[in-house]
Amino acid sequence: MMFSVRLVLADHYMSPPIHELDVSYSEFRGTEVEQVPVIRIFGSTVTGKKTCLHVHGVFPYMYIPFEGSGAHDRLMYQIASSLDKALNISLGKANATVQHVFKMTLVSGLPFYGFHTKEHQYFKIYFYNPLMVKKAAELLQSGAILNKIYQPHEAHLPYILQFMIDYNLYGMNHVNLKNVKFRRDPENPGSFECLSEEILLPERVSRLSTCETEADAMAADIINRTAVSDQLALNPGLAAIWEDEKQRRREGGRTSQITPQSSRERPFAASTDSALFFKQKLHEKLLLLNSQLSNNSSTLLDTPEVTKTPYPAETSEDSELLEASFVDLHIQSSGSSPFIRSGQMEQDDNASFVDEDLVLSLLSSQRRATHNSVWSKYCYIQVLFI
């Protein structure tokens, strides 16, 4: 069945996997999945019903370069295992065995930095928790993983924005789905009598909002991505809003062509005391940050164990690697057998190479920076009330 919801607000939460909707087993790690990210979209349907839509099967990711030397399968397991250990250390749980990396794949794409005519190879790292992506990027850049300084790509993108880019979604536009399942309302059990049991979730999947309608869907069922066109407007996210306005003008007997208003002249405004104060504080912080970065860079370069940043290897013409922009639908194959690893592969998977001192040093510097930031805000508030 076709279902559409206007994307007004979106956030995410972590939840145990729902068998009917989520991946419950990681074939890459060979373990059961305990927590998965779920995107929650609030909006209204075409008929005006306030709706909460839960989107399953979207994992946050980033890229790091692959040099092309050695077996990439073994290296992927080492990076994943090392990231798990480093993240656990940074969270103050050095002895924990919690896995943060869902899976890794080898992909091909054009490097973002510099001029390139050929595609290069990258590892695409998928995480369970979106909040771990930034921490993982910092650890990769610090040289704590495998004694190499990795340059992450797309690690700066927020999870929700990454999801909207991949599936061609825009704020205030409709999310179109070809399949959807509804959550039952225990306070109004007769509200879904006209619907088939096939599109209703079990009673164990409880509602999480007060919206009139609450539904779940897999990201693989979003059909907006198929509507991508080469003839895009400057801001296609506003297309639906402009079309609504044109329709209102037609119904009011006015022309649907909207003439933009001319801009008003802006008079010169002198800088206020607060603006000058913050400008000076920004200048001081930038100078401090620049000196800290210089010191950290020199420390890392002086460390003999840390090698230079890996450069991605070129992709051969006969390569069958996936495109970096390929959207993995993360659908659990119903008939697939569990992924069985050999003893050597198991050993490689557990082999982590983490500079624990560097991780702790990075964690300490972050805490000091947070403390200084909070203290600066406190001092500024005190100055305002003097």
UniProtKB/TrEMBL annotation:
Taxonomic superkingdom: Eukaryota
Coiled-coil spans in chain: none
Compositionally skewed regions (Basic and acidic residues) per UniProt: 244-253
Gene Ontology CC entries for this record: nucleus; zeta DNA polymerase complex
GO biological process: one example: error-prone translesion synthesis
A GO molecular-function annotation: DNA-directed DNA polymerase activity
Catalytic activity: DNA(n) + a 2'-deoxyribonucleoside 5'-triphosphate = DNA(n+1) + diphosphate
Database matches in InterPro entries: DPOD/Z_N (IPR056435), PolZ_Rev3 (IPR030559), REV3_N (IPR056447), RNaseH-like_sf (IPR012337)
Pfam families for the chain: POL3_N (PF24055), REV3_N (PF24065)
Residue ranges constituting the DNA polymerase delta/zeta catalytic subunit N-terminal domain according to the UniProt record: 57-134
Domain DNA polymerase zeta catalytic subunit N-terminal, chain residue ranges per copy: 2-56
Disordered: region residues: 244-267
PANTHER family with a match to the protein in the record: DNA POLYMERASE ZETA CATALYTIC SUBUNIT
Full protein name: Uncharacterized protein
Species in which this protein is naturally found: Cryptotermes secundus
